[in-house]
Amino acid sequence: MCGIAALIRVRHGLTRNECMGEGEDCRGSVGLSDGSLEEWSATPPAGLSELDISDFALDLRRLLANRGRGGYDSLRFSVDENMGESVLEEGGEEKKVEVEFHGYRESAARPSITSRRLLSSWASLDGRESSIEGALLWDGEDVGADFLERISLCAAVQGGIEPCELIRLMSSVEGPWSMIYYSMRERAIWFGRDARGRRSLLVGSVRGDSDDRLEVICVSSVAMHRAGLAIKWSDVDTRGLYRFDVCQKQIKVCPWPEKGGLRFRIDLCRSAQRPMDLDQREVSLCSLVDELLRLLRESVRLCIFPRGGALASSSDWSADDAHADVAVLFSGGLDSTILAALVDLELPSCHSVDLINVSFGSESEVLETPDRLNATDSYRALCAASPDRPWRLVLVDVSKEELQENLPRITSLAYPSDTIMDISISAPLWFASRGSGVAASVSSKPTCGWAPYRSRARTLLVGTGADEQFGGYGRHRVQYRKNGWEGLQNELNKDVARLWKRNLGRDDRVLKDHGRRVCLPYLDERLMSWVAERQLCDLVDMDLPPGEGDKYLLRLLAKRLKLGPASTLPKKAIQFGTNIVKQMPRGRGTDAFVL
């Protein structure tokens, strides 16, 4: 499933700003520390009538529908004002809290809402008037038909979910995910996202304009944002799972076990001399490249074959054999070219691979953007390294007029990320995911003719996370020059820690608007843990010039894979590489973007 949302209508006020630590009773609370819910936790704005709320829900469903094209499921239920028992909505007497679950699924074979009482068949609720034990909205890989049962087994004897057990269960789930879960036993709604924040999940609230006792809380993969709509949205923080007590009308957070994040090691790097001579270091680096290659191959393999060996096929798109099942967001730079080469190692050679490249400007300008020039060179290198692979370079050229036409939708998807920099990153991602442009005929020869083409690849690989972990940004070099290894260490730690807030939620909303399954191989848990255990001086060598010392270990891997010029290309930010920066309004990147 790719698009989930829960709308909760609450009367008589809502209590916020409460936190629940691991091992605490659900009824005990302490003050909410700084996090993404703070802005939202203020009194929400007024301005929605009952009719507006219905329209809002319908508009939200339209946005969600683009994320999952396999079908739609919904569930409505109420919690009785006096008894607190969950029943399916059947009209009549007004209830205290009314809840709607909406889910759009990626495959027609897999319902988006799973209920405990129909667990065995992964079936959604059938609409009969009866009590439910639990219902799960899940945006992530298939975790198996017993997953809801495992959540239910976390319930304490007294009838509520023990926070420690649920946190342990959810923290053991690998890969990107977000979830919304209703537990009838404790009459609570749990919601959250994986600790890395690789799936989008937002929370917002608004009061009714005719009844100030009515408040609508929305937890959703996307934000319904338009002019005049008085609703505040925030990214759900990744520090734990949030729990909404339906009867007490309180929201608390249960933190993850201390995960520490990436703390790059520099103890040996501080030494005046290398810890080994040059021959030993060469052997050590060779071994590190071997291990990096193994981990990245495993990560890419999981992207291509997510369900026990079955290719994530484009058959849901009614594609024919001429279309690829796998695509790479392809700037032609180091990170994306490595991903393309690893796809080649894992995918049978009979399958074509789409390499999607985006440029902005006039017909002449798009030919000279840095990303277009790099993509052409790296495409040739891939064809030479793997001539049996049917590579397809997809060129997406975006004119100023086409950009302006689609900016309202792109800004709505990116929201609440709304700066000039946010939109200058979001627009290339959105057009790349759409995959509509021209392509060379599938061939090992890079000089074939061009024809209109729209990629139908089910899976899109994106290189997010490589720069943050391997020292790819110019500011990393600046910190090293100013403050040595400690300065570089602090900057990398900060970049990784804020990825969820600055990049991942926004990118997930934008990239999935075209119904693709988006994978981030560089943010695989095993790879990130391995990187965190390495000495920083084995990952980067800032004494070497740009294009050599930054992302040093990745560059050694690129040379191992015979990727030619990509192994020495310096970092070029997407807004400059695609030339969209020339289409953006003047101002600082942190200024608010105004249409």
Can you offer a commentary on this structure?
The chain is of the alpha+beta class and 595 residues long. It has helices at 37-41, 50-65, 147-152, 163-171, 278-304, 334-346, 370-385, 400-414, 420-434, 466-470, 474-497, 499-511, 525-532, 536-539, 552-560, 574-577; strands spanning 3-11, 18-19, 30-31, 46-48, 71-79, 86-88, 97-105, 113-115, 134-140, 177-183, 188-193, 202-208, 214-220, 232-235, 240-245, 250-255, 326-329, 353-360, 391-398, 436-440, 450-454, 459-461, 517-519. The relative contact order is 0.12. It folds into 2 domains: 3-255, Glutamine Phosphoribosylpyrophosphate, subunit 1, domain 1 (4-Layer Sandwich), CATH 3.60.20; 278-583, HUPs (Rossmann fold), CATH 3.40.50.620. The chain has 16 helices and 23 strands. It is 32% helix and 21% strand. Strands 1, 4, 5, 6, 7, 12, 13 and 14 form an 8-stranded mixed beta sheet that branches. It has a 7-stranded mixed beta sheet with strand order 21-20-19-18-17-22-23, with helices on both faces.
